[in-house]
């Protein structure tokens, strides 16, 4: 079945460092891909999405490109801030279904 | 746009009582809503898919008599935890799909802020 694999956390970075959180997927067909962010004690907020191969989603300095050849959707940000500290979830919406398959989440801690 | 609210944000109840959690889409209509459960420092576990006007579809291992879901309108779904016990303590999160968004846009889920349930 469909699955999403995220890099293990926690990831600890200094402010202004470059961020990469890896996400790879297994799916039949052509899923849509998403990154969500969860701040402590809150629900999930949509960060960015991509619906087809080679699409790049971007928001608030974060970017991710839908790579079908490597089945990946890695999240990147050029310069992180303390306020980016949160848990990041990669998810896919499988073809023919509206259910999400979530990765395990990656906790990011940014130090001042 | 695409705001989903949940009420209450947290609730403490005694073992054996029932608790109702509401999920509302505030500025769009949602044919489909999803209910998730999240344990500390873990990912979200899908409990059920709720479709307006029809019975919810539960994931394997989720007791439908324990977690009653009602989706009576295009903007409201409720989850009732019946005869709650301490092991039901968790963070419950709902999400909703925009009814009017077709194709790939309709795949995006908008999440509520979550409800923390503590059963004593």
Write the SSE topology.
The complex is a heterodimer of chains A (112) and B (120).
Chain A: E1 3-6, E2 11-14, E3 19-21, E4 23-26, E5 32-38, E6 44-50, E7 56-59, E8 62-65, E9 75-77, E10 86-93, E11 100-102, E12 106-111
Parallel strand pairs in A: 2-12
Antiparallel strand pairs in A: 1-4, 3-9, 5-6, 5-10, 7-8, 8-9, 10-11, 10-12
Chain B: E1 4-7, E2 10-13, E3 19-25, E4 32-38, E5 44-51, E6 57-58, E7 67-73, E8 76-81, E9 90-97, E10 109-111, E11 115-119
Parallel strand pairs in B: 2-11
Antiparallel strand pairs in B: 1-3, 3-8, 4-5, 4-9, 5-6, 7-8, 9-10, 9-11
Share of residues in strands of chain A: over 45%
Shape of chain A: globular
Number of helices of chain A: 0
What coarse outline of chain B follows from CA principal-axis ratios?
globular
Biggest sheet record of chain B: 7 strands, mixed
What is the alpha-carbon Rg of chain A in Å?
13 Å
Q: How large is the share of residues in beta strands of chain B?
A: over 45%
The protein's oligomeric status is: heterodimer
The portion of residues assigned to helices of chain B is under 10%
Mean pLDDT of chain B: 91
Secondary-structure element order of chain B, as H and E? EEEEEEEEEEE
How many helical stretches of chain B? 0
The SS-based structural class of chain B is mainly beta
Give helix % range of chain A. under 10%
Poorly predicted runs of chain B are none
> What's the mean pLDDT score of chain A?
93
The rounded distance between the terminal residues' Cα atoms of chain B is: 37 Å
How many beta strands in the DSSP annotation of chain B? Answer: 11
The count of DSSP E runs of length 2 or more, i.e. the number of strands of chain A, is 12
- The helix/strand order of chain A is EEEEEEEEEEEE
Our measurement of the CA-to-CA distance between the termini of chain A, rounded to an integer number of angstroms, reads 41 Å
